[in-house]
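Handout, section 4.2: multi-component inputs.
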Amino acid sequence: MTGGLRLDGLTKRYGRFELGPVDLAVDDEVVTVLGPSGCGKTTLLSLIAGTVSADDGSLTLDGRSLDGRPPEERGVGLVFQDGALFPHLTARENVAYAATGEARVDDLAATLEIEDLLDRRPAALSGGEAQRVALARTLAADPDALLLDEPLSSLDAPIRRRLRDELHDLFGALDVPVLYVTHDQRSATVLGDRIAVLREGAVEQVGTPDAVLDRPESEFVARFTGCENVFEGTVVEDGVRVGGVTLPVATDRAVGTAVTACLRPSRVRLDPADDDAGLVGAVRRRLNEGDGWRVIVDLGGPDLVATVPPAAGRSLDAGDPVRASVDDVHLL
Amino acid sequence: MTGGLRLDGLTKRYGRFELGPVDLAVDDEVVTVLGPSGCGKTTLLSLIAGTVSADDGSLTLDGRSLDGRPPEERGVGLVFQDGALFPHLTARENVAYAATGEARVDDLAATLEIEDLLDRRPAALSGGEAQRVALARTLAADPDALLLDEPLSSLDAPIRRRLRDELHDLFGALDVPVLYVTHDQRSATVLGDRIAVLREGAVEQVGTPDAVLDRPESEFVARFTGCENVFEGTVVEDGVRVGGVTLPVATDRAVGTAVTACLRPSRVRLDPADDDAGLVGAVRRRLNEGDGWRVIVDLGGPDLVATVPPAAGRSLDAGDPVRASVDDVHLL
Amino acid sequence: PRSDWLTVALALGGLLLLYYLAPLVSLFLSAPPGAVAASLTEATVVNAATTSIVAATLSTLLGTAFGLPLAYWLARADTRWTDAVLAAVVLPLVLPPTVGGVVLLTVVGPNTLLGDVAAAAGLPLTRSLAGVVLAQTFVASPFVVVTAKAAFEGVDRALEHASRSLGKGRLTTARRITLPLAAPGVLAGVTLAFARAMGEFGATMMLAYYPRTMPVQIWVSFVSLGLDAAYPVAIVLVVVSALALLVLD
Amino acid sequence: PRSDWLTVALALGGLLLLYYLAPLVSLFLSAPPGAVAASLTEATVVNAATTSIVAATLSTLLGTAFGLPLAYWLARADTRWTDAVLAAVVLPLVLPPTVGGVVLLTVVGPNTLLGDVAAAAGLPLTRSLAGVVLAQTFVASPFVVVTAKAAFEGVDRALEHASRSLGKGRLTTARRITLPLAAPGVLAGVTLAFARAMGEFGATMMLAYYPRTMPVQIWVSFVSLGLDAAYPVAIVLVVVSALALLVLD
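Output:
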């Protein structure tokens, strides 16, 4: 079976920056490419769309080789970060630019709820509206694969959440490979059937959202996906010794082995402490994030970051002694 | 007492857009200005800094009138979204540009942990590094008030979180009024002693983070601060009737009054339902946000959005019947 | 001290503006309207205007047809060659027009291979309309290239990528996306080239003293009859320049 | 069809390039190096070069001193006046140089108030170095204004705001932030103006046929002695233009 989008050793060099070699197979699923700015995400999409030529490697889509083909013959749809709508055309003309007929335009306009915007020029659209039109325009060409370059990143939160929900349903209804590039862990986990974490041009880990978040394979993946507690330690009898503290972890690694312990702030529970048993420390700082509190606890050695519900956070104060319960420590 | 930063009826018109009149008093505290893009946040800062002249209203800082004064005589420090570092000067020269002495430069470099960056040009700095240098440069002039224009918005999440934590401590140590502009509810609640919500040039609500989030005074404030469940309904005997559903709310308003009910997704609890008592519906969609699940529940009338912990979300599936517990319904 | 400095700066700029505008106003005050109007129908004026307009139109068309593809290539190519090619395009812009005339004469003048062949074929390249067009094209066409290049660069490349990824080829993309968006800049370049061609004097004097263009006629009238005789053609050219300015804005 | 179209486009562009470059190569092939080298020391050549360089330097300095404040104002002012002022600056650029000469003569020529006063004071404004400088300033200084304006606009206004909010005044901000960042563009404008002044022919012919600048000398040599006699000065001006091109890049 050679269907879907297949990247084999795809490579591109720009001066000292090198992307790849990237190996990735995207079936009729959504793969989100997650990485910091400058890691090569946009270049990867450009290579697949054919607007940048690869230095090495090969690319197939549904069994056809795309190598060396011009962008217009690839059947790859591309949605840009800012929409890249043609400013001299109305929304309708933008969508119709590559559509097979007016019926298709009206159809997509209904799906993406842009019927009322069709007569406007892009300059008269808000960011979220422009992205809906851009999506419709790309889908109008009936692409065999869909690439999206951070289409939500410049939108305000309420519109971003709503469009993200809709993208989730839209992708579910499409039966083409989707590659979605983002620097936002939340977009990556919400939209991706699988996540590929990209770091300085290289794929560092590929897996389901749960696998990547719960079992990161490197410190970079851990930190970039929001695992803020990353401690260097040593395996001891009853867990992992970090600084002057022992984290309770069940592991079959030999005592004395050097390990890195990862722990997501959301997996820490904090309770008021009235004695010294277990992981006890003092609240160093607490920050009101609205739907919860971010609490930094001084354990005497390392600092522990925890996110706790509103009620739990409100009852804490700087200096208060707390006991931390940590269940989901992951060892690298 | 006329200390701090006082805005009285500050107004600016650009064609059809009008900012203000804005009345706001900022003592030695942090006020975050929260609003969507295009709401006038940056213009507000420009008026205070003096780089744009007001059409109307007056401005005082520590009792001095700033009206009509050029920017250089206002003593107002401004940190720009992208840093706005002088590209032809090194980081050290940027900080020294307005510093009272080399000792002050070294001092600030230590505080902001930029000692190792001082010989670099801005082009060789990452986004987070540039913002640290920009902060140092602004503080070097010893401003009597500090204005910040979304300094975190272009940073990747891990760096954004870390710098936000540090800003929280830094602001705490400053004894000048701080006005911090952002479109991000989380930055607004973490950093602000008070939040001013701005909508289309007008201040819609001012209050502590808890007040604004828990007791929004308008639907706009509710939605923009992340309260996604906003329902039009009518007061009935045992709560508020919305569509075919009754939300349990204690209120002293008369039965039959039309009200708007607001409910943050994080304040909804979902449990598996085995009967029809209470607020029961079917899971329409669930989205993995990493540190929790976003669940949309079809109540038969309105859709209810809930954010639930990882374990609770993982046990749900589309179509599953759930019972929603809603404790914190706020009525407009 | 702040306002002193501003005052000095504005005074300097104001003086320069005055230097640009006062002579123009003075021209219209100096030229007796009746006499000017009467001489507008004289054969010398009409002939010069016809020559200038025909030649400038031809050289602008040539410059546009040959120059736009070059401008697009300069705007989009990724090679190091673009710098060298751009230098070759800018050279005629900084080269004095009389020198342009000299170098052209070494290629198309009498006693050159090309000049002799063309003259034998009945199309002499000097002292002819062809000579005027050659001179004007040399000095004016770089304006099309340089200005259109900037206009093409101003079109976001992402828009072209979007069009290509929507299944449209290079030519369709250029026709439906790039050219419409670059049109104002391209028009500005064409207008500048036309204005430069209308005003061409130095290279024309070397290549084609006859048939006389308007700038040459001004010189001839001035030398043979005095300044007053130069007014009618000068006023026509001022009006043409003002019209060009309107298009540019 | 795609590659056919590309080929045609590149061929068109290539022909235009050839038209710019071949005459220059031909000049160097046509001019006998020995004769040219010998004539470089002739009095007419040396005098013309001295006049051109002195006058072009003076007019460039004048254009820069008066033009930079105007360029900065055009780049930063928020009023509707900027469009009108910009049009006044661009007008001398699109005005034929001979017409520039005519309009200047109506202000500084013989029998004008200014011309008579200056001549009486011992500084005649026509047929003098002053006349050359006046002609060159009129046609060349707009290049400083237009190019420097673009350079100033290229400096992010936020940087100036940052400097002001750090307690530095307008003048300090201009000196330490705006000018250093705009320097390459300002230098380009000054270079263009100098090149334009060196090549000025049409207005100079009208205002100051004497003392002869290099472009005028080319014309005189060509008319009185033939094309060969124009080569030495032409080659000097080609070298000057090439140097200007180096600075521009």
